[in-house]
Amino acid sequence: MIRAIVTDIEGTTSDIRFVHNVLFPYARERLAGFVTAQQFGEPVKTILDNLRQEIAQPAAGAEQLIATLFTFMDEDRKSTALKALQGIIWREGYVNGDFTGHLYPDVLPALEKWKSQGIDLYVYSSGSVAAQKLLFGYSDEGDITHLFTGYFDTLVGAKREVQSYRNIAEPSCFCPISIRSWMPLKRPVSVPCSWNAATATRPAIIRRFSVSTIFTRSRSQHERINHIFRKRPAKLSLAQY
Fold it and tell me: Is the link from the previous residue into 109 a cis peptide, with omega within 30 of 0?
């Protein structure tokens, strides 16, 4: 029995082009000025201290940190500090109405249907929890944050790590689901599906056929079962394998 669904964002609930063509440029244009102005105030001060730890440069000044952040952007590095700063900057854009969080047309009906069936809905994305809440709080369909029970980001671990998915399923994460009863969202083909290795049996998945590749249960067995690519994503659906 499925008790919970854990969904990603990019390419699943939202078009990846919204993130790369709208959100990323918006933050990049404002990053240097924002960090320079806010470096001594919270929460930016703590975020920058965490970044210094991340790069093992405890004495790094603002200029060096800004350069590092731009490098991380170029590399699409899943840095928790970078994601936190981006989320803060994006908030201004959402609140000012510069953009709204993109949702595929079938996402809201699907989420509402699963919620009405008593299934808890969670988000796990490399973007910060704050950024996740902004996207769904200021979405094309308005505020839909009430549909979600919880949110997870890289503070629980990287998406390629099996332990991250165990962490999500543990009660210590305030996530009342068991490893056998939660349904992770299908990841893009370019990223190993570590959640398979975290489950005792092959789970059901949510599938969007823009890029759909199903792997076996462990990262050491990346057997490709199915790969379909379409220019326009097909309807969001559940598939049991």
Answer: no
pTM of the shown model:
0.71
Per-residue pLDDT of 191-232, as tens digits, reads: 444 444 444 333 333 444 332 222 222 333 222 222 222 233
| Residue 90's pLDDT band (cuts 50, 70, 90) | very high
